[in-house]
Amino acid sequence: MSDDDRIRVEMLVPRSALVTEVRAEIITQRNSLHAIGQQPRHFLETLRRDDFDVPIIPMGKLRGVEREPYLAWLRARAVVKHAPANDDAVPPAELDPIERAIRSVGGRIVR
Prior knowledge:
Blueprint: E1 26-28, H1 32-36, H2 40-47, E2 57-59, E3 62-66, H3 67-76, H4 97-104
């Protein structure tokens, strides 16, 4: 490609558009809402539970926990709200391609 085939383009971008997100590795009541979407009050209530076994890091008045162990603890207590329908017992290999596609996006066929 020669220089005649190229076009130089300059664009001004405001600094505010160049946001880089920093992921908090320690979750505290001060950053819990932004970091993981949990209200500070619920975060502190979780830390006070008898069955909470993730190490707590005291930082003055703040209480912190490492992000991944905390999220793993929350995931272990996740509850499935909806029981699978009876027709989910059919092995996916026995379904026709359309039904398999519908189920892959969380849908189901009502007959």
